Amino acid sequence: MSETSGTSTGSPKLRAELDGVPTYKPGRPAAAGGPAAYKLSSNENPYPPLPGVMESTVAAAASFNRYPDMACTGLTEELAARFGVPVSHVATGTGSVGVAQSLLQSTSGPGDEVVYAWRSFEAYPIITQISGATSVQVPLTDGEVHDLDAMADAITDKTRLIFVCNPNNPTGTAVRKAELERFLDRVPSDILVVIDEAYREFVRDTEIPDGIELYRDRPNVAVLRTFSKAYGLAGLRVGFAIAHEPVADALRKTAVPFGVSQLAQDAAVASLRAEDELLGRVGSLVVERERVHAELVAQGWTVPEAQANFVWLRLGERTSDFAAECERHGVVVRPFAGEGVRVTIGETEANDLFLKAAEGFRREG
Predict the structure, then answer these.
(1) Is the dihedral of CA 152, 158, 164, 170 positive or negative?
(2) pLDDT per residue over 309-342, tens digit each?
(3) Residue 44 DSSP SS3
(4) How far is CA 105 from CA 175, 257, 260, 300, in A?
(5) Collapsing DSSP states into helix, strand and coil, what is residue 85?
(6) Residue 295: in which H helix or E strand, if any?
(7) Distance CA 290, CA 359 (A)
């Protein structure tokens, strides 16, 4: 062994792009034995797995010693049939955020720019910085909606990718078809526009477009979907993109090999086949969302129209105090320091506890 081998006290050289990368903050769970009994901080589905899902996962568990189908063949074929698209236009990944990261790897690197609204999904700045690209954050309008005109104005010759989160996380607002089409018409054809529709199933405004319909005749549009929210498979990490073949092929090249477990694949297929039950559950959550929204407005809060499975309260410097008040009443919400709180629509009992906390907080100050 040489004199210098194994004796250095320095650290390995890491990529400079990682300096200052913000840490993703998951919704905090309700602490065991603590005052909070309900977790309304992660936009999870409060219902148990759909019919057939447990049976499919138990069966898949018998093959833990084998690698999963890397091509996700069964799931890909099921999705292609469900949405009326070619199999070659479907790409899967570890949740929609995993697919989003592959999109960054496929399009953007040092010197490139990625445009998205802010505040929006907190993973966007993380995965953009990891890719080495530069974030261009465009403020939301006063109504907490994407400012698509300003986003189009922000495009430069360095822009490679644009995220449009619709409905937007964490504000729950959504852009309508005419304005989104007008925006897409302004985007150069060599820039990829990613319509992130993690909450699509909860949309009830008929003017909000289905991104898959927009993608069909626009080769520079890709659509992200997930099984984590409406389908209730958050713990299995499976999402997908629908995009034209060059983009979908790039996603397959950049995906982590064998990233989607066989349990996740089989559970996703079973969930797709239980659509009637799914629609019933989503419908119940939408009814609860409308009830919560209406009561908050009646209490005097300004609440954006929500099209997802959560509501948003902009509280500024009172954000942490409000989150603490909610926890005292038995629910954990998701605070964004100095900005506001996002509150998942959960069980009726949990929603009632949140509303009671909101009413008391409003009354006291």
Answers:
(1) negative
(2) 999 999 999 999 999 999 999 999 999 999 999 9
(3) coil
(4) 27, 15, 18, 45
(5) coil
(6) helix 275-299
(7) 17
